[in-house]
Amino acid sequence: MREIVLAARDVRRDYPVVGEPVHAVRGISLDVAAGDWVAVVGPSGCGKSTLLNLLGAIDRPTAGSISIRGKDVARMNDAEATRFRLTGIGFVFQRFYLMPTLTASENVELPMSEAKVPRAQRVARARELLTYVGLGARADHRPYQLSGGEQQRVAIARALANQPALLLADEPTGELDARTGTEMIALFDRLNRDGTTIVTVTHDEELAQAARRVVHMKDGAIVDQVVRRPLGDDAPAARGATA
Amino acid sequence: MMLRLALATLSRRRARTALTTAGVAVAAAMLLDMVMLGSGMRESFRGFIEQQGFQIRLTPRGTMPFDSEATVGGGAALVQAVSADPDVVKVAPLIGSKIFSRVTAASTSANTPPSGADSVVAAFVLGVVPAVQGDYLIVEGRELAAPDEMVVNASYLAATGFAVGDTVQIAAGYDAQMRRFAGTRTVRIVARARFVMLGGTERAAALPLETVQAMGGPERADRVSVVMVATRPGADIETVRLRLEAADARVSALSTAAALKFVDERLGYFRQLAFILATVSLAVGFLLVTTLVTVSVNERIGEIAVMRAIGVARWRIVAQVMAEGVALSLVGATIGLGLGLITAKWLNGILAAFPGLPAAFDFFYFEPAAAFRSLGLLVLCGIAAGVWPAWRAATLPIAKTLREEAVA
Ligand SMILES: Nc1ncnc2c1ncn2[C@@H]1O[C@H](COP(=O)(O)OP(=O)(O)OP(=O)(O)O)[C@@H](O)[C@H]1O
Ligand SMILES: [Mg+2]
After folding, report:
1. Which domain holds residue B93?
2. Which of chain A's ends, N or C, has fewer CB atoms near its CB within 10 Å?
3. Which residues contact B118 (CB under 8 A, 6 or more apart)?
4. Do B147 and B98 share a structural domain?
5. Does residue A151's CB lie within 6 angstroms of at least one atom of ligand 1?
6. Is the pLDDT assigned to residue B222 strictly greater than 70?
C-alpha cells in the first residue's frame, strides 16, 4: 500500500453571506496517495478553488477533517498552518503571483529563506529547480522580463522549493495559451513521474486528461471519479503530456 | 530578503517615496525648529544675563530692568549701602535715557550722514560706571575715561555718519517744533562697542553715569534705573537678594534665576505655541507615514497574501511593512535635521532684525540632546505609524484576498 498523503473527511465550507450562507463545499471526502495526481474538474462555482484552499491550509473548513501526512490541517493555529504551508505544501496559482521586485532565482529562494535554509544551499537549489523547469538561463530575470508560461514555471519551481508533500495547483494553465498550456502539462507530468503528489483544479480538459485520476465536482460535492492511470502505471500519459 | 522586499517597495514608487520623505523631512525640520525655538529665547537671555557677570539686579520696586522710565533717587547712597554688604563684590549703577545727536555737514568727519546735512538722530543712552560696567563690549577704541567721552554702537555711527575719534554735540532733550536742544554737551566718541542687551539695529550710546545724570538737569540728579550687583563666589545669592531688598523699601532685588523665570513667564505663550506646533509636526509625520504605508500595503495586498499562502510568517510581514515606515522616518528625520538647522539659521536672521532685541540674540537654540530626543520621537512615530497597516497586512484572510485579487 502506498502512503496516503492526503485524507479529507466530510469537509464542509460555508461562506457566511447575507441571507442563506453559501455552501461552497458540502461534505467532501477524498484520499490522495503518495505519487498520485488528481485533477478536480467541474462547472464554474462548484467549489473547486474553495476545496483546494482548504487542502492547502489557507482557509479553514466549517466542518470535517483534513489530514496531510497525518497532521490535522483543520485544527492548526495560524503559526502552525503557516509553517505547514511553508514546508508541507507547494502552491501554484492561476496568476503565477511572483514577487515582482525579486528575480526568478530569488522568488524560488523566498520560501527557502523563510525556512532558514542556508544561503549557499538555497541558491544552489533554486538554480537546480529553475533548470528542472527549463529556465536555468533566466535565473536573474525579473518577472516582467518573463512570458506568462515562464512565470508559471518559476512559480512551480518556487512551489517545489521546500520539497512539499503535496503540490496544489489552481487552474495552472488558466492564463496560458494552448501551446504553453501543453508545455505546462508536460512539466506537471514529469513532476508527477518523478514522484511529486499533485492535486490540480482545472477547467482545462487537456490538463485533466493528463492526470492519473479525475474527480468530478458539482455543487460542492464529488459526483464521480475516474482513474485513468493507476499508480505504478507509468506508460506515457494522454496526448501532449510527454516531456 | 525580507528587508529587500520592503525597500524594493519604496524604490518601486520613487516619486511617491521621495515626496513622502520630503514631507516627513519638513515635519521633522518644523519639529526641530519648534523645539529649538522653545528653549532658544530663554537660553539667549540666560547667556546675556550671565555674560554681564552680575547675579542680582536692583530696580525701582515693582519694575523690571529698563522696563519703564522709572528711576530711584539717592543713587550714590544706594550704591554705597549695597557695597557695604559683605557678600557683594561689585556694584554697577546704571541709568537709561535718550540722547539726541546733532548732525551737521561740518560735524561729520568722513561720510555724509544718510539722514541729511543737518538733522537730529535719537539714540538710547546708558549712564555707566566704566570700571564695572557689563553692558557693552568694545570693538574698536578704548573704554570711557573722562566725563565728556562717549561709546557708541555701529547703528549709531551709521545713522549719524560719525566715526570713532569725532567730537560731536549731543543733548538730553530736543523740541522738534522749536528745533531747540536741552542739556547739551560736547563729547568725543572714544569707542565703537556692541551692547549686549540691545538689538543690533537699535542706536545706542554709553556715557559716564554722572554725565547722563547731569544732562538731565536737577530732576535726574543722583538717580539710577538699575543697580547691578555681583556677589562673592560661594555666597548664597538668594540670601543676599532678600537682604538687599529688605534694606531699601524703594527697590526690588531680582536674581538671575528670577529674571529668567520672569522671561520664562513672558515667553510662556511663545513656548506653548512652539509646543503645539511641534506636536502638530509629529502628527503630520505620523499621518504621512501611515498614509504611505497603508497605500503601499493596499497596493501589495495580493503579494502579501501570496507570501502568507506560501508560508511566510505573520511577524515577518509585520516586520516588512514596518521596515518601510522606519526607513521613511529615519531618512526623513535625517534630512529634517539638516533642513531644520538651515531654516532655524535663516529664520534667526529674519527675527534678529526685529528692533529692540539684543545683538546676536538667538531665537533657536540647538541643544543636541533635545534635538535628538525630538527626532527620536519622530522616528518612534514613524514606527508606530506602521503598526496598524502592518497588523492589517499580517492578519488578512488569505483565501479571500487572493480571490479578490484574481477578480481585480
Ligand atoms: N468569500 C466568499 N464569500 C461568499 N461566497 C463565496 C466566497 N468564495 C467563494 N464563494 C462562493 O462559493 C462557491 C464556490 O466558489 P469557488 O471559487 O470555490 O468555485 P470554483 O469551482 O473554483 O469556480 P471557478 O471554476 O469559476 O474558479 C461559489 O458559488 C462562490 O460564489
Ligand atoms: Mg476557482
Report:
1. 62-249
2. N
3. B102, B103, B104, B105
4. yes
5. no
6. yes
